[in-house]
Design brief:
Shape: globular
Number of strands: 0
Helix content: 55-70%
Strand content: under 5%
């Protein structure tokens, strides 16, 4: 028969026990706080992505469309580079038209505007659309900057061939591959003295260097832009390809008439 002491001991133990058993939590610390955080609607994310992409396109195009060679020749020689040599606004025609310093400055300016477009484009993506892949934003800026150089609104959409600007955009997006491609350019130019052939082979080699050397995330759009920019540069050399096949292409260092010739 239970005694009064047993009754009090049992009552005390019951009071010490928790009213409900504790369950072991397998959730990481902060999981409840994270689940309680407000979720951004998918429509808002899509809008942020769209706005960021449009801003990248606008900024990259405007940077790429700056006609560096045209501006420099206008400022320092008071001439229209489109009326001399091949009529192209790129560094090669500026150089062949008698402006060695201006040719080097044109090349450097075209490289810098391409590199700046990709750097700023990636920054815009990070700030305005954090969920976007950085390399996709860089690729979008790269493509748009080269298009801006080839089809600048300021010169009625008649620009350069995109070699230096293409080198600049990928110097940021895929630096090792871009340096390898410019190495191919330098080697072919040294062996043949054809700037056009060096440009074509350098552009054609870039996607393959990128395929082998670019590490980490490689979204399909990033890869597609590599091939797209290279094909655009090669397509802009179609007249040079015809002259190479006909054996009438001018070699680097050969005397060039200042009168405009067929591009």
């Amino acid at each position: 028969m239970p005694t009064s002491g047993d009754f009090f001991l049992t009552t005390s133990i019951a009071r010490m026990r928790p009213s409900s058993p504790l369950k072991e939590s397998h959730e990481p610390p902060g999981a409840h706080a994270a689940s309680a955080a407000p979720q951004v609607p998918s429509g808002r994310l899509a809008l942020d992505m769209l706005l960021a992409s449009l801003l990248v396109i606008a900024v990259a195009y405007l940077l790429g469309s700056i006609p560096v060679g045209y501006v420099l020749v206008r400022l320092f020689r008071h001439e229209d580079i489109r009326s001399v040599g091949s009529g192209n606004i790129g560094a090669t025609n500026v150089l062949r038209s008698g402006g060695k310093g201006l040719g080097a400055a044109t090349f450097l300016g075209d490289v810098l505007k391409g590199a700046s477009a990709v750097y700023i484009g990636g920054l815009i993506g990070v700030l305005l659309a954090p969920d976007a892949q950085l390399r996709n934003m860089q690729a979008l800026a790269a493509l748009t900057a080269v298009i801006g150089h080839v089809f600048p609104v300021w010169l009625r959409f008649k620009g350069g061939k995109g070699v230096a600007t293409g080198f600049g955009v990928f110097l940021v997006a895929a630096p090792t591959s871009a340096l390898c491609a410019i190495g191919v350019f330098a080697l072919v130019l040294l062996l043949t003295r054809y700037v056009s052939l060096a440009s074509i082979l350098g552009a054609a080699s870039f996607p393959f260097f990128a395929w082998m050397l670019v590490s980490g995330e490689r979204p399909p759009f990033f890869i597609a832009v590599q091939f797209g920019v290279s094909l655009l540069i090669i397509a802009k050399h179609r007249q040079n390809i015809r002259r190479l096949l006909a054996g009438t292409e001018s070699r680097f260092g050969a005397s060039s008439s200042r009168k405009k010739t067929t591009a």
